[in-house]
UniProtKB/TrEMBL annotation:
GO molecular function, one term: DNA binding
Superkingdom of the source species: Bacteria
SUPFAM superfamilies: Putative DNA-binding domain
Keyword Transferase found: no
Organism field: Promicromonospora iranensis
Protein name: DNA-binding transcriptional MerR regulator
CDD domains reported for this sequence: HTH_MerR-like_sg5 (cd04780)
């Protein structure tokens, strides 16, 4: 297919397609003439991946390039791919207090979690605990329950990796799952929070809705 068709199918402009190719995120198409290039389904899939990493995952082009390089590298270990993906997600974190760091490490010890010393999740979680401490110190008490739930999610992540097939698919599942998985979990958490709120405080009744699980109410007014 020509670049115009590739653009139409993916919603990515020809200029962006050429830019991603220059930056090494997208393999070049096959030259079929002096001023023409052919693309195939692999380019469609790669462009959709690029846009998912950037638009949904919030990665910069440079960070997306590092993630894609990990996917394409034939020699990279899965644990190394995990590290690259974890560090690619943009997070502005204020250096946390030693108290918050110790709270996180206490939960790690309780759950039997072993990580490298500079795992980005440690300061990220600790910085949130510092923020909570300025307003609601009681919320930090639920940290062990959160950790228990995260253990289940982490196991599910690894099960998905193992089930994804060959090595290339496993690596892609690792990096894409980390980058986009955070967004997916945030969405599911909001759905579950509202459902449990209605169940706990309204007897399961959703205001203005037909009360069927999964049925959205497009006419409900939010107040």
């Amino acid at each position: 297919m020509r670049i115009s068709e590739l653009s139409e199918r993916t919603g990515v402009s020809p200029a962006s397609i050429k830019y991603y190719t220059r930056e090494g995120l997208l393999p070049a198409g096959e030259r079929t003439g002096y001023n023409s290039t052919a693309y195939d389904e692999s380019h469609v899939a790669r462009l959709r991946l690029i846009r998912a990493l950037i638009d949904t995952g919030g990665l910069t082009v440079a960070a997306a390039g590092e993630v894609i390089a990990a996917i394409d590298s034939p020699d990279i270990d899965l644990d190394h791919a995990f590290g690259i993906a974890q560090r690619s997600v943009p997070r502005d974190v204020t250096p946390p207090s030693s108290t918050a760091i110790e709270q996180v490490r206490a939960v790690m010890r309780e759950r039997g979690w072993a990580t490298v010393a500079d795992n980005p999740g440690i300061p990220l979680a600790a910085s949130v605990l510092d923020d909570l401490a300025t307003t609601r110190t009681d919320l930090s008490a639920v940290l062990p329950r959160y950790a228990e739930a995260i253990d289940i999610i982490a196991e599910a992540d690894l099960d998905a990796v193992a089930a994804s097939g060959d090595r290339d698919q496993m690596t892609e599942t690792v990096v894409v799952g980390i980058v986009l998985g955070d967004v997916l979990l945030a969405g599911l958490r909001r759905i579950a929070q509202e459902s449990h709120t209605h169940r706990r405080y309204r007897g399961g009744v959703v205001p203005g809705q037909a009360h069927e699980p999964g049925q959205a109410n497009e006419t409900r007014e939010l107040t």
